[in-house]
Design a protein that fits this description.
This protein has a domain of about 45 residues. Helix content is about 0%, strand content about 40%. It contains no helices and five strands. Strand 1 and strand 2 form a beta hairpin. The radius of gyration is 11 Å and the shape is globular.
C-alpha cells in the first residue's frame, strides 16, 4: 500500500514546486506511482519514492527516522 493518498500535497525530494496527487497507479505494487498536477499547470507521473509530503508552507517530514 502506498504512503501518499489522492489529494495529498507533495514536492519532489530534490525540491522545487508543489503538486497535488490526482490518482494512483499500481497502488498495491512494490513501486507505486502517482499522477501529479504541479502548481505550474503541468502533469507528470512519478514513483512515490521520488516524492515527499509537503505543506503550502514548506516540506515536512512525516515519518520519524530512528
Amino acid at each position: 500500500m502506498s504512503g501518499l493518498t489522492i489529494g495529498a500535497i507533495v514536492q519532489m525530494k530534490s525540491g522545487g514546486i508543489h503538486g497535488v496527487i490526482e490518482s494512483l497507479l499500481d497502488a498495491d505494487s512494490d513501486n507505486p506511482k502517482s499522477w501529479v498536477r504541479w502548481d505550474d499547470g503541468t502533469y507528470s507521473v512519478h514513483g512515490q519514492s521520488e516524492l515527499r509530503a509537503a505543506t503550502t508552507d514548506g516540506p515536512q517530514l512525516y515519518k520519524k527516522l530512528a
